[in-house]
Write a structure and sequence with these properties.
Elements: H1 3-16, H2 18-29, H3 32-52, H4 61-85, H5 106-109, H6 115-121, H7 126-137, H8 142-149, H9 153-170, H10 178-194, H11 197-203, E1 204-213, E2 226-227, H12 229-241, E3 249-255, E4 258-265, E5 268-277, E6 284-290
Parallel strand pairs: 1-6
Antiparallel strand pairs: 1-2, 3-4, 4-5, 5-6
Helix pairs in contact: 1-3, 2-3, 2-4, 3-4, 7-9, 8-9, 10-11
Length: 309
């Protein structure tokens, strides 16, 4: 078989697993751009392997590709961490925003944890995060993970225990019903965009935290997360004061699997807003606002949508 034919065959196998690989890598890195780079590196490693030996000599292509992808992602994590050291203000994961139309983009169909969960995962070590994603999100057994990251099953169990304990300490096990989340999201966004201070005071939990990720490219934005209802209302109100309601168009979309809001300025995305709810589901405990244009390049407005603001 010619080298071109081998590469094409290897590429077909890779594309069969691309959606799975995207989800794994994205949940480990929180960046679409870095995920795309790691996918490219994975494809190059896979096709190079195919040119050295027949593809049918790989007993389990899926497992082989997962191993390559996870290890490339672990290497890329060091680059991501270095960028974070010089990042201006709070850093949030790049949101995966579903389009209004029924898109066929596998990146938007990829299994992903919530934006709030991705923020928690940022505090894990790279190996703990890899183990958590493989085990908790994709259901891999400890013995399978051991083969992927080249550790003993006992070491994987220890990593999984530490990661799970850390995550569960910071994330409630209870998740609000989707209808409750949708209603709370709509109430918050309309109050925030409209500058309705009384409604904001009612829906925000006393210990709410607001993250605003602008990368230093938009104002106003806090240089660190804002804690407490009074400070949160002042920050959100300063945002509303800089924009007339008619200047921004509101669309409710699914972001990382949860109901959220996207604000457009003309045809360009201005902000993605994701809310985290209290265990009771009646108040907002966390607000994640991404306004960094570099993290919104894949967000587009469907002209067929009706304006919701």
């Amino acid at each position: 078989m010619s080298e071109i034919a081998v590469t094409e065959e290897a590429t077909d196998v890779f594309m069969d697993h691309r959606e799975l690989l995207f989800g794994l890598i994205y949940n480990m890195l929180g960046s679409v751009a870095d995920t795309d780079d790691v996918l490219q590196e994975t494809w190059l490693s896979w096709t190079a392997r195919a040119r050295r030996a027949p593809l049918d000599s790989v007993a389990n292509p899926r497992a082989y590709l997962v191993r390559i992808a996870v290890n490339h992602a672990l290497q890329r994590r060091a680059t991501v961490n270095r960028r974070r050291e010089t990042y201006v203000g709070p850093w949030l994961p790049e949101p995966l925003v579903d389009q209004a139309d029924d898109t066929e983009d596998p990146a938007l169909r990829a299994e992903s944890v919530s934006l709030a969960m991705l923020v928690v995962l940022e505090s894990l070590s790279p190996l703990e995060r890899a183990v958590f994603v493989l085990n908790e999100v994709f259901g891999y057994a400890h013995t399978e993970i051991a083969d992927v990251i080249d550790r003993t099953p006992a070491a994987v169990r220890q990593l999984a225990h530490r990661a799970r304990a850390h995550v569960h300490a910071r994330r409630p096990l209870y998740e609000a019903h989707p209808r409750v989340r949708r209603e709370a999201t709509e109430r918050f966004v309309r109050a925030a965009v409209g500058g309705d201070i009384a409604s904001l005071m009612e829906i925000l939990a006393p210990d709410v935290t607001v993250w605003t990720d602008s990368g230093g490219k938009r104002r106003p934005a806090g240089l660190r997360p804002v804690h407490g209802r009074d400070k949160a209302v002042r920050l959100i109100n300063s945002f509303a004061a800089r924009h007339r309601p008619q200047d921004l168009e509101l669309r409710f979309r699914r972001v990382n699997g949860d109901d959220a809001a996207v604000l457009f300025e003309g045809d360009s995305p201005y902000a993605v807003m994701v809310m985290d709810l209290t265990p009771e589901g009646d108040q907002v405990s966390g607000v994640y606002i991404v306004t960094n244009p570099e993290k919104l390049t894949h967000v587009h407005k469907d002209e067929d949508e009706e304006e919701e603001a």
